[in-house]
Amino acid sequence: RDTEAAAYLAESLRWSSGDADAVYAAASMYAEKGDYAEAARLAKTALGSRPSHSAALSLLASIYYDQGHYDDARSVLERALDYNRSDARAWFLLGLVESASGRFDEARYALSTVVDLRPDDELARIALENLVMDGTSFEDSERAALAAWRFERAADLEDRLLYEKALAEYRRGLAIDPYANRGRRRYAELLRGSGLPGSYLAELKFLSDLGKDDKALKDAIEIYNSVLAGSVSRAWSLKGFPADSVAYRVAVFSTGAGGDSYHAGGDVVVARYLRDILAFEPGLVVDRAVPRVASFSDAFRLARDSGADWFVLVGVAETERDVVASAELRAARTGALALRIEAPRSGNDRVALSVAKIVSEISSFMPLRGSILARKADTALVDLGRVDGIAPDDAFLVIKNGAVSIKPDGSGLEWRDADVVARLILSRVDDEVAEGTLRRTGFFDRVNPRDIIIREPPKAALPEQDDAKAPTTEPSVSVREPSYLWSA
Fold first, then answer.
1. Rounded to an integer, what distance in angstroms lies between the CA atom of residue 396 and that of residue 488?
2. DSSP secondary structure string, 445-461?
3. Which of 100, 111, 222, 435 has CA 20 to 30 A from 120's CA?
């Protein structure tokens, strides 16, 4: 079909070489195929016939942007805006070009113009938020203004009982303006209503440390200090929440433009947005940088060299009212494909809904893994809690530290039966830590802090093995349920 399309376009150009629309169609086809040199030549030919052709100007500017020729891209975009000052797509790409060039004020002006022209342009708002978060201090007034918009949306969603979406909006708003008083209080109330009293108290104490306490806040802190007096974390004298000692490290990459998208450069914005949301999933540590890569091999090399456990390749296809975000989750050690996700969405909030779908599936796929923080006789403290989807009476295997690895095909975890040192039965669970009873395997006590815990497979799923050194793999039933709550 591509050959037939090329033949028809060639015939069309032979009979109508002066038709700017026909020449632009050919340029767009070559851009889809990755032949950017020919696409740029044809786009220039179309502009020679019609200098104000907005689609050809957009395509040419996006080609220059993808190739890193920012001065050329800026020149083309300024030319497009001379013809039409209301061209939101040109303003959007100009914002990305200025940002990539290190011209913060110019980028902020361009993206703010898009938000003013098109308040419903979701990608433009996300790009502006990313820019402000990267280029301003926490006290900057523009942060508060952008976060207030998120908090208003969250309050509206909360009124309509859409609590998961409200949590996502509060999280985004607090990422923009961490010192927001009203937004953090409302977010804390949602955590309390979700059955996370420890996280609720942590949010209140954070506001108190900022000097934003009042009588109601002080009373709530006093009440919940009393309520949590007998909690697991208090019993073990934990000072704050433990670090994710065995959290999976994840790298996120954008796979490039992928053709003539409605928002040129929007793939970078979506990949960064996905990274920001994925960073708040329990048990994950996400690399801050979100580079654009030309091929799978480039992403594989970068992820492996950085020491990541997994990497995610993000692709975006977009029209004016539709978006399809796709993601490939791969094992960083081997590059094996573990999970592929397609998330098509239409209408309002399509980017947020599409990205939320991807994050949910990635989080659900990740095998649950924790570690022992401390022990007292046969009682152990572990770094998993309610946010990880565990409950009292859940059973885990305790495996020697360093003996658990991701399977080469990325389908789960593997270990040797000889490295299983105990079973752990949970008795009490807090928001982010839990306590359980150890039942050691064998005569000797070999359980130590930093040993790994894995959810115990069902008895019927355990293979019969004669060789103690044969690897045991975690079946699909042991992966954790998705969590929509934000770790404190």
1. 24
2. ----TT-EEEEPPPGGG
3. 100
Question: Considering the entire predicted model, what is its pTM?
Answer: 0.88
The pLDDT score that the predictor gives to residue 15 is: 54
Interatomic CA distance for residues 46 and 38, integer angstroms: 12
User: What does each C-alpha distance from 319 to 128, 260, 263, 341, 356 come to in angstroms?
Assistant: 20, 9, 8, 19, 19
Instruction: Give the residue from 360, 483, 373, 382 showing the smallest Cα distance to 432.
Output: 382
Q: How far apart are CA 246 and CA 413, in angstroms?
A: 13
**Starting from the edge strand earliest in sequence, which strands make up the sheet with 284-286, in order?**
284-286, 248-254, 310-318, 322-331, 337-346
Q: How far apart are CA 79 and CA 429, in angstroms?
A: 62
Residue type, position 42, single letter: L
Q: Specify the pLDDT at position 242.
A: 52
Q: What is the 3-state secondary structure (H, E, C) of 227-239?
A: HHHHCHHHHCCCC
Strands 452-455 and 379-382, by their bridges, are unpaired
Handedness of CA 228, 231, 233, 234 (dihedral sign): positive
Nearest alpha carbon to residue 191 among 280, 264, 131, 89 = 280
User: Which two tokens mark 81?
Assistant: 């805006």
Comparing CA positions, the residue from 142, 188, 140 lying closest to residue 166 is: 188
325 token code pair: 């975000």
How high is the mean pLDDT in each 10-residue block of the chain (488 residues)? Answer: 64 66 84 86 89 91 92 95 94 96 95 94 96 92 94 93 92 95 94 91 92 90 91 81 73 79 90 94 92 92 94 92 94 95 92 95 94 93 93 95 93 92 95 93 88 85 50 46 40
